[in-house]
Amino acid sequence: MIGLTLFVGVVIANYSENKGTALLTVDQRRWCDLKKRLKIAQPLHLPPRPDHHKLRAFMYDITQNLLFKRAIAMLVMANSSLLCVSWKSDEPHTIPLATVSAGFTILFTVEVTMKNIAFTPRGYWQSRRNRYDLFVTFLGVIWVIMHFMMMNDFSNSFGFVVVILRFFTITGKHATLKMLMLTVVVSVYKSFFIIMGMFLLILFYALTGVILFGNVKFGEHIGR
């Protein structure tokens, strides 16, 4: 492991020298990293308040209220907490939990409808977060129909996936969580080739061990 760590360190050092980042100061590296984050950061596409339309203005005020946003976040957390146990058709708790999750999905559908009324469909579609919410809500509506019509393992598994996808919508509802996710995405993107190199190296060691010691019988006297 020590030799492997040294090898990876040398590879990273040579890679940094080839890119030219090894000669940068700490502040210059932070500035370069900030510019890369700004490339993937999305500006907030928030349409103005429609003062000329009373219904849309009313929906706009509700959806932009801080209490409304916190309530939706709490609903997402409550919906995700239903995954604490597995959803199997032969378990007695599966149908009640799935039905409660279907109720949460209906509330999320109401939220998307209110935002479409407040922003108009064109204004709602400008934000990537809204597109993802709409996609998950569409899958949720399909699952609600499947749940009340089928109620089998397939519908439960589909609902399980929808709840997991719904959990990731909470990252866009808070600035700190959004920045954390952006940091993770940037880190994974920058470390992708290093991670793949480590994976291939470990895979090479594993295949070599299987080829060399694959015919050794299991037991205490391995040397015989």
UniProtKB/TrEMBL annotation:
Gene Ontology biological process terms from the UniProt entry: positive regulation of synaptic transmission, cholinergic; positive regulation of synaptic transmission, GABAergic
This protein's GO CC annotations: plasma membrane
Gene3D superfamilies the record matches: Voltage-gated potassium channels. Chain C
Transmembrane regions: 71-89, 95-114, 134-151, 192-214
InterPro entries: Ion_trans_dom (IPR005821), NALCN (IPR028823), Volt_channel_dom_sf (IPR027359)
Keywords: Membrane, Transmembrane, Transmembrane helix
Subcellular localization, as worded in the UniProt entry: Membrane
Entry-linked SUPFAM superfamilies: Voltage-gated potassium channels (SSF81324)
Topology in the lipid bilayer: Multi-pass membrane protein
Molecular function terms, GO-annotated: monoatomic cation channel activity
Residue span(s) of domain Ion transport: 67-215
Entry-linked Pfam families: Ion_trans (PF00520)
Protein name, entry field: Putative voltage-gated ion channel
Organism, as annotated: Amblyomma sculptum (Tick)
